[in-house]
Amino acid sequence: MDGIVVPVDRPVQNGAMDPNLKFDGFVTLNSDLNNPIRSIANLLFIKDKLIVLDNETDFHHIHVFDANSGIYLYNIGKITETNDPRNGIKGISDVAYNPTNNEIRILSRGHLSFSDYDLAGNFLRSIPIGAFGDHLAYLSPNEWVVYNELTSTEITGLNYLLFYNNQGDLLKRSMAYNTNQDNIGYQFTGFLRRSGDNIWFSPPFSDTIFLIENQKASPTYSLQLGANALPVNLRASHVNGNDLLDATYLDEGLFANGRFLVFTFQRSRKMLLGIYDAEQNVFFDSENSDKSKPINQLLRAGKVFTKNSHTFALVLTPYQIQRFMTKFDRSEWEKLAPGLFDRAEQKIPDDQWYVLYFSFK
Question: Which domain holds residue 352?
Answer without folding.
Answer: 4-360
